[in-house]
Amino acid sequence: MRPVLNLLFSINDSYVDQFKVTLFSLVQQTPDRDLHVYLLQQPRLSREPEVEVFCRKLGVSYHALVIDKGAFADAPTSDRYPETIYYRLLAHEYLPDDLDKILYLDADILCINPVTALYDLDLGEQLYAAASHTEDANVTDVVNRLRLGDYESKNYFNSGVLLMNLTKIRQMVKREDIMTYIAARQNLLFLPDQDVLTALYGHHITLIPDQIYNFDTRYHLIYAAKSLGKWDLDWVMANTVFLHFCGRDKPWKPSYRSIFSGLYKHYQHLTRRANRD
């Protein structure tokens, strides 16, 4: 029996097609593992039968995690901070108790190299492993500390790729702590889930290199400059595991223009073909 690799996503019906591309790319790069996908949703996806069929075609085990409609009735929310910001932070409340590790991914990510080295990372007493995008908050570290409180973490973390140590998270990450923090600072939060992750739990996060595990495609020229030209397209294709298509400009939009456009469209085409077969 092959070892299991657990994956977590949180999507709605409008992101099913993008989720399929991400999952297909993961299957292509993880032939030595049995993939189990856990899908957080509220309400239940109307396209869930389509998702189940696609997972079955890929040989992936599918598990629906449907959040009760009133589960966050007492949570601080607004148009800017919908209740979905809580889902990945409190995923451990909905995942099976016997899971000790899971990898959360946004559905605007493409996997282009094997992910097993990240998944097999020994987190020890740490809650998460994540990468830092200095561009995420679009403000200086000093301003971040003023608006979020003088948090202990040395880094501001991106929540799009999160390796979760569920055993420790169940012990330390509490719903009431998260809700209290958001209620007190919601007017100061720019990227709520990332702000909360960094401020409350950043000092319990293992830093992983973003150029490998959370490559922000908007800044490929900055990556190349930071590395004095080393992290060029050839290096990315050989070394980067996750391309993250952050921001409003997405590769499935007709207007998208990037050096990674053709790569995404290639995986999109293969995904559609796998869906038909």
Description of the molecule:
By secondary structure, the protein is an alpha/beta fold. It has one domain: Alpha-Beta Complex (Spore Coat Polysaccharide Biosynthesis Protein SpsA, Chain A), CATH 3.90.550.10. Helix content is 36%, strand content 16%. It is built from eleven helices and ten strands. It has a seven-stranded mixed sheet. Strands 5-10-9 form a three-stranded mixed sheet. α1 (16-29) links the parallel β1 (4-10) and β2. α1 (16-29) packs across α11 (261-276). The protein is globular.
Give the number of domains. 1
Task: Specify the CATH architecture.
Answer: Alpha-Beta Complex
Span of the ends, CA to CA: 26 Å
The best one-word shape is: globular
Labels describing this entry:
alpha/beta; 3-stranded mixed β-sheet; Spore Coat Polysaccharide Biosynthesis Protein SpsA, Chain A; 7-stranded mixed β-sheet; 277 residues; 16% strand
List the helices and strands and how they pair.
Blueprint: E1 4-10, H1 16-29, E2 34-41, H2 48-58, E3 61-66, E4 101-105, E5 109-111, H3 116-119, E6 128-130, H4 141-148, E7 161-165, H5 166-172, H6 175-185, H7 192-201, E8 205-207, H8 210-213, E9 215-216, H9 220-226, H10 233-239, E10 242-244, H11 261-276
Helix pairs in contact: 1-11
Kindly summarize this structure in a few lines.
The protein has 277 residues and is α/β, with parallel strands linked by helices. It is built from 11 helices and 10 strands.
